[in-house]
Amino acid sequence: MRQTRFDGKGSRIRWTESVGAGPARVFVHGLGSASAVQHAHLGADPRLAGRRTLYVDLPGHGISDRPADFGYTLAEHADALAAVLDFAATGPVQLVAHSMGGAVALVLARRRPELVGGLVLTEANLDPDPPAEAGSSRIAAYTEADFLAFGFPEVLDRVGAGWAATMRLTDPLALHRSAVSLVRGSRPVMREILRTLPQDRVYVQGGRSGPLDGAEELVRHGVRVVTVPGAGHNVMFDRPEAFAEVLAAN
């Protein structure tokens, strides 16, 4: 495990890392999850062997610190991720980011383009105000006080055993503030950032999730949209061999 400070007050963001050559591959998890849980199993695929690989937990998630005076906005998460890449001296990396992590990756690529050589975004949040049934919207619907008082256990009961297992490792305050920021979206909005970035960009969609809104426009702006049949939101769990194939090709 490695760590570095991220907020000017001594709080530490942490990650696990495997050695290798070539441009580093950096995995970033979604809301209420952890990177090693979501992605470490892919390291066993021979097509992905030999690359330096980092599994980063965003502030408030997994093994990273969870300061109560941190905002947990998309921009602040992006700056914390930049602290990892600066400290680890990765050079331009391939960011592989899921859901909320994809929104964070897009903000980072805009703020610190020299750190990002390419992006593989798995069902990343591209637009503000997701549907009311989305996990982030359900969390953000609580006030912060209500979520801390009774909302967190209610959400754990509703999200299902798989997500609850990692959500329990997330600080409730960090979870709520992250969800609120995700629902609000970035400025400019994440979709606009994706359209205008110069880096190599791949968007991975699970076939069971239905068509990606605005896919044709993204393709016109140079984004490769890949649909993985038989997969839902968690493509890396539903079809790990197909997801590894996408990564190996990029």
TrEMBL record:
Keywords: Hydrolase. InterPro entries: AB_hydrolase_1 (IPR000073), AB_hydrolase_fold (IPR029058), Carboxylesterase_BioH (IPR050228). Pfam families: Abhydrolase_6. This is Alpha/beta hydrolase. One of its GO terms (molecular function) is hydrolase activity. PANTHER family: HYDROLASE ALPHA/BETA FOLD FAMILY, PEROXISOMAL MEMBRANE PROTEIN LPX1. It comes from the Bacteria. Residues 26-246 form the AB hydrolase-1 domain. Gene3D superfamilies: alpha/beta hydrolase.
